[in-house]
Amino acid sequence: MKKILKFLFKKNRIDLIRQNLIVKRPVILEIGIHKGDFSKQLIANFDPSKLVLVDPWIAYDDLIYQNSWYGNSHKSNQNIQDEYYNNLIDYFKKYISENRVEVHRKTSDEFFLKNINLYDLIYIDGNHLFEFVKRDIFNSLKFIKDDGIIVLDDYALKGWWNDGITKAVHFHEKEQNIRVIKKHNIFEYHHQCIIKKI
Ligand SMILES: C[S@@+](CC[C@H](N)C(=O)[O-])C[C@H]1O[C@@H](n2cnc3c(N)ncnc32)[C@H](O)[C@@H]1O
Fold first, then answer.
1. What's the 56 CA to ligand 1 centre distance in angstroms?
2. How far is the CA of 127 from the centre of ligand 1 (A)?
3. What domains are there in the chain, each with its CATH number?
4. Ligand 1 nearest-atom number relative to CA 84
5. 118 C-alpha vs ligand 1 centroid, how far in Å?
6. pLDDT tens digit sequence for 15-55
7. What is the 3-class SS of the chain, one letter each residue?
8. The whole model's pTM is what?
């Protein structure tokens, strides 16, 4: 049943964002970059006037991150994280020299402390634990333009990071500082959640 619904209603992240982002040449912030696969899609599809990329590229030792893409394990270590970062810088070097791409090797919390830009799109895909996502939404609300959109990855993915993303969205809905304008459900198969500030 799940497979059939997925087959019928699957939508990719870029198409979903395109349908909900009206601005041309948007200013975009992506939190959580990994190898930069999605960053490359963002620049190719939206021709942003500015693309800001934030990730600490740290291999964390804490047990909770052991099976994640950024834990210290057989899958990842600090050398691998350094390689991801160096490859990304190499890929975007032309855009960086033109000041169209900025790469911040730091956590989103550290980034927001010094940020002064306003964004048309903020894509949240960093640390997926509830407290982190809750803070990423809270900080994003300060820097999203009035008609901008905030998109969260891995929404409604049952059991994923103890449902941190879904719980953080529900937390802010209860606080009444966000409005959900689109979310994953059986007829919208993409595990994204798009919110706007109220
Ligand atoms: C799921 S991956 C990102 C995938 C990427 N957005 C994509 O779609 O290709 C999560 C990333 O979040 C990063 N991360 C972990 N903690 C973070 C934090 N506090 N702030 C920003 N990024 C963080 C990790 O280093 C990892 O690269």
1. 8
2. 6
3. 2-197 (3.40.50.150)
4. 27
5. 21
6. 999 999 989 999 999 999 999 999 999 999 999 999 999 99
7. CHHHHHHHHECCHHHHHHHHCCCCCCEEEEECCCCCHHHHHHHHHHCCCEEEEECCCCCECCHHHCCCCCECCCCCCHHHHHHHHHHHHHHCHHHHHCCCEEEECCCHHHHHHHCCCCEEEEEECCCCCHHHHHHHHHHHHHHEEEEEEEEEECCCCCCHHHHHHHHHHHHHHHHCCEEEEEEEECCEEEEEEEEEEC
8. 0.97
